[in-house]
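Exercise 7b. Backbone tokens:
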């Protein structure tokens, strides 16, 4: 008769799960032992939230659900930021917490607490099974919930005794792997979009994470080409169509890409594919979209028309929708929108020239752009870039190009600092034959700095690039802009030798204090067979993101 742990792990295996990200604790000993016996790989971290971030990263990188597993009570509370980050970013994953013995519930038992109440507001689905025999049912329900509509996190808090108990009347282990539903747009909505495209002189397309989750790379590129419309990508859609493609004009994030801002303000039609009309595109408001007619395709009905009135709102899967649009455009001559595309390019070039002027300036410590000028030449083309937080990072998001799908990882809509390093670990696990590159500010690195040990223990030769300006750069520059003449408050850090910290954990590193040292440091980093941290001394100067925020408030 199988134990609850065996039922649980076999149910996970039925859904294609072959690894668990964890931090061990008393509630997990039996289920982790079972996981290894059943052939699963187990990666353990130094902080519970990092384990969840790694599972989140695994989901994003592989487009399959990751699974985190932490112990109960303090382990559970430590995992909350990871759970909230993944759910806000619409990542389908399962977060599991152990729990105190069910027979001692509400009797002041050791580490007894109401875990469910803490996660119900930050998950799509959360439950506490009552019997070990119910575990297969709850695993199946968790996977169904994470995939239906807008993806998100499912959570199970499992009492420790359920893992060790045997139940002779257990639910059947699922036999079919659960996958997202692929709904198609209605014929009427497709006809309306075709009519809008035919009438449009200045269309633009924005693709977001929904397009990535649906695997719509080929369909997205074909649609942009058939419509001869400029394409902007954001979030997980970065790299679905290479920034080097003639019709892809980079980031849709207007705080980073002023060319996108200029284009969207002039567009007469904006087609939004798998992207919320949220803060990243100014809520689709008139200050960015102007009077443009707007079409939105999303798998979540409540997103359609939430912040902006739509000409067409399609409750449908991105890949299926784009394939349908492309079929409707077969045989139609591609419109001549060369003047419009040239205008968009001019807007991008104008801002690029301003940034290029900064690279010509000599300063000490160096400007952030000097680091990226060298990094973009030294970094392998197939690297997975995992962006964390900091003004240093925002410069890189502008200067480096996204060329491949699933190789441009960002924090997510909560923008919780430190997330880049755990996701970078998952990227190196998922893609052992290419490099994971974590780009972070010195402040962000501190959140999960213990995971440098995780990188060394598992032999993950990722490269960590730290822009060290000795402070919380974004907030320091914002305070200077918002409160001129006042001293900054709580913004200063030490210029710590993080390369030595990396060496102390057993990795390698380099300390860069001048531009002429960059090339050698990056050469060493990408040749290393150990985790390597490049600690770059930079000037504390505002990024495009920071200048944008200051400009909005001081206009």
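Sequence design result:
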């Amino acid at each position: 008769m199988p134990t609850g742990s065996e039922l649980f792990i076999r149910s996970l295996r039925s859904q294609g799960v072959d690894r668990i990200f964890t931090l061990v604790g008393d509630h997990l000993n039996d289920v982790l032992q079972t996981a290894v016996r059943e052939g699963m790989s187990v990666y353990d971290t130094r902080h519970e939230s990092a384990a969840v971030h790694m599972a989140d990263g695994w989901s994003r990188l592989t487009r399959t659900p990751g699974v985190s597993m932490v112990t109960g009570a303090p382990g559970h509370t430590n995992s909350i930021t990871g759970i909230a980050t993944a759910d806000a970013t619409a990542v389908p994953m399962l977060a599991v917490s152990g729990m105190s013995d069910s027979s001692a519930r509400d009797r002041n038992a050791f580490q007894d607490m109401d875990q469910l109440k803490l996660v119900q507001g930050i998950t799509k689905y959360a439950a506490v099974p009552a019997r070990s025999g119910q575990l297969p049912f709850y695993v199946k329900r968790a996977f169904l919930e994470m995939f239906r509509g807008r993806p998100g996190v499912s959570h199970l808090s499992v009492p420790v005794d359920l893992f060790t108990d045997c139940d002779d009347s257990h639910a059947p282990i699922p036999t079919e792997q659960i996958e997202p539903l692929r709904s198609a747009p209605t014929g009427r909505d497709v006809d309306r979009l075709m009519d809008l495209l035919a009438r449009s002189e200045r269309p633009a397309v924005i693709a977001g994470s929904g397009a990535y989750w649906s695997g719509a790379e080929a369909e997205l590129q074909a649609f942009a080409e058939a419509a001869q419309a400029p394409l902007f990508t954001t979030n997980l859609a970065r790299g679905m169509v290479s920034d080097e493609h003639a019709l892809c004009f980079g980031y849709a994030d207007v705080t980073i890409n002023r060319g996108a801002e200029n284009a969207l303000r002039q567009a007469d039609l904006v087609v939004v594919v798998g992207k919320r009309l949220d803060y990243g595109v100014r809520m689709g408001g008139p200050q960015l979209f102007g009077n443009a007619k707007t079409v939105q395709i999303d798998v979540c009905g409540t997103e359609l028309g939430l912040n902006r009135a739509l000409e067409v709102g399609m409750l449908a899967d991105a890949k299926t929708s784009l394939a349908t649009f492309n079929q409707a455009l077969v045989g139609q001559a591609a419109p001549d929108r060369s003047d419009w595309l040239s205008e968009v390019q001019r807007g991008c070039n104008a801002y690029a020239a301003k940034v290029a002027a900064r690279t010509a300036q000599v300063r000490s410590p160096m400007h952030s752009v000097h680091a990226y000028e060298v990094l973009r030449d030294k970094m392998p083309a197939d690297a997975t870039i995992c962006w964390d937080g900091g003004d240093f990072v925002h410069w890189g998001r502008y200067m480096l190009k996204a060329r491949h799908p699933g190789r441009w990882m960002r924090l997510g809509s909560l923008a919780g600092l430190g997330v880049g390093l755990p996701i970078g670990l998952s990227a190196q696990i998922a893609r052992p034959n290419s490099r994971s590159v974590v780009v972070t500010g010195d402040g962000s690195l501190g959140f999960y700095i213990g995971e440098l040990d995780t990188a060394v223990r598992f032999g993950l030769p990722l490269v960590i690039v730290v822009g060290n300006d000795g402070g919380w750069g974004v907030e320091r520059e914002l305070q200077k802009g918002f409160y001129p003449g006042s001293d900054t408050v709580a913004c200063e850090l030490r210029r710590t030798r993080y390369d030595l910290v990396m060496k102390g954990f057993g990795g390698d590193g380099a300390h860069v204090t001048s531009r002429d040292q960059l090339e050698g440091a990056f050469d060493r980093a990408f040749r290393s067979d150990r985790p390597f941290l490049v600690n770059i001394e930079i000037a504390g100067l505002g990024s495009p993101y920071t200048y944008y925020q200051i400009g909005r408030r001081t206009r």
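Instructor comment: The domain at 4-164 is CATH 3.40.50.970 (Rossmann fold). The mean pLDDT is 94.
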